[in-house]
Write a structure and sequence with these properties.
This protein is mainly beta. The chain is 0% helix and 50% strand.
Length: 127
């Protein structure tokens, strides 16, 4: 699977930003899940949103529930992350990731579940 993020940049607190991830090879490698994962400076990776590709069902971390929306355009091969009401502590590198595994017991929410990663895009939220 090839993944390439775009759309990062700077936004003021309370603002919105939409990330895109252009992907290919999803069907070839039987990808079951796609996700957005972020890593803030000095922090561990956090899976903020994931999509079960069989049903396009979205799943979210509690920290972003009701503010972030994950979606995809299957025809164009693009995964999106719409982010609203952003806060400075959400400054991070945001990665697009994919997994061919089956999620059991919430495994989708752990970074090690994902085997394919993009290079990431920087998002900076200023006060």
């Amino acid at each position: 699977v090839t993944l390439m993020e775009s759309g990062g940049g700077s936004v003021q607190a309370g603002g919105s930003l939409k990330l895109s991830c252009t992907y290919s090879g999803v069907n070839r490698y039987n990808t079951q899940w796609m996700a957005w994962i972020r890593q803030a400076p000095t922090k561990v990776h956090e899976v903020v949103a994931a999509l079960a590709t069989g049903t396009d069902s979205p799943f979210y971390a509690d920290s972003v529930e009701d503010r972030f929306t994950i979606s995809r355009d299957k025809g164009k091969g693009i995964l999106y992350l719409q982010m609203r009401l952003m806060q400075p502590h959400e400054t991070a590198i945001y990665y697009c990731a994919a997994s061919g595994r089956t999620s059991i017991g919430g495994m989708w929410s752990t970074e090690t579940f994902y085997t394919g990663w993009g290079q990431g895009t920087q998002v900076t939220v200023s006060t």
